[in-house]
Amino acid sequence: MWHRLILRSGKNGNSADDRRLPLTDYIAKETKERLVSVQGSEWQNFFQSVSATTSGQPPNVAWNARASQGWDSGDSFFFRLDGRR
Prior knowledge:
2 strands
């Protein structure tokens, strides 16, 4: 099973009420039941690698294979939880 990490929201047309929410409340609303809190240096390294790849500086070529292609190029990354490809 593949899992997809999406770097931006695919939603459009947020309501005017949503735009008036404080940022922390807006984030809580948009990520309700989808946000997973992580900690540790391995996660910091992971997100640094994601950021580097989206900037065109992947830490190694394997990261390019995980990045989405096409119209949403670089907005999504695909991973298997068991680490296989």
